[in-house]
Design a protein that fits this description.
Number of strands of chain B: 11
Shape of chain B: globular
Helix content of chain B: under 10%
Oligomer: heterodimer
Helix content of chain A: under 10%
Shape of chain A: globular
Distance between the termini of chain B: 40 Å
Number of helices of chain A: 0
Order of helices and strands of chain B: EEEEEEEEEEE
Radius of gyration of chain A: 13 Å
Largest sheet of chain B: 7 strands, mixed
Chain lengths: 107, 119
């Protein structure tokens, strides 16, 4: 299985801050990398697919980059509704695997 | 706008079989794969497996020996059966649509359902 490792595991930030979350794959996955936002009590929501493509309806303050083994999710200016847990997920091979999550909290 | 609605038992005893069904409303059923994903309490997301319209499946090897995913194309439903459950199978279970055009991704999700395994 391809292991996905996110850093940091948790992050405190303020509204308006720029934040970056990193995801590393245990082997090269090209650009087969997706990002999800998950709020308690809700279903996860697809934000970014294929490393850098913004899912329809997702605000442009979310950007993704990377290829191979190293990827980043950046939120350019945090909004109150962005405080959630973020997961990366690889689709290069099955089983599909997720990172352990990055919990973004209000400072 | 596709909607996924799941149902099934929420409380099981060890050794019983977990059974969940997800209905797909709106949008195409035949153009996608349909997945099950779970999240144990306090842990991350785990992909369980997927099925398409014709019944082709992909399973997580860690669950494959206990897992059956099936599809009912007459109702646009797909189902999960996980046998011989233990406390480790306690989780919130989600059904999701898998978009396979380009990079596969879970682009629509149903609300999760907590399944608890306890004696």
């Amino acid at each position: 299985d391809i292991q996905m490792t996110q850093s940091p595991s948790s992050l405190s930030a303020s509204v308006g801050d720029r934040v970056t979350i990193t995801c590393r794959a245990s082997e090269s996955i090209s650009r087969y990398l997706n990002w999800y936002q998950h709020k308690p009590g809700n279903a996860p929501k697809l934000l970014i697919y294929a490393a850098s493509n913004l899912q329809s309806g997702v605000p442009s303050r979310f950007t993704g980059s990377g290829s191979g083994t190293d990827f980043t999710l950046t939120i350019s200016s945090l909004q109150p509704e962005d405080f959630a847990t973020y997961y990366c997920q690889q689709s290069y091979s099955t089983p599909r695997t997720f990172g352990q999550g990055t919990r973004l909290e209000i400072k | 706008q596709v909607q996924l609605q799941r149902w099934g038992a929420g409380l099981l005893k060890p050794s019983e079989t977990l059974s969940l069904t997800c209905g797909v409303y709106g949008g195409s059923f035949s153009d996608y794969f349909w997945s099950w994903i779970r999240q144990p309490p306090g842990k991350g997301l785990e992909w369980i497996g997927e099925i398409n319209y014709s019944g082709s499946t992909n399973y997580n090897p860690s669950l494959k020996s206990r897992l059956t995913i099936s599809v009912d194309t007459s109702k646009n439903h797909f189902s999960l059966k996980l046998s011989s459950v233990t406390a480790a199978d306690t989780a919130v279970y989600y059904c999701a649509r898998t978009m396979y055009w380009g990079v596969p991704r879970f682009d629509s999700w149903g609300q999760g359902t907590l399944v608890t395994v306890s004696s």
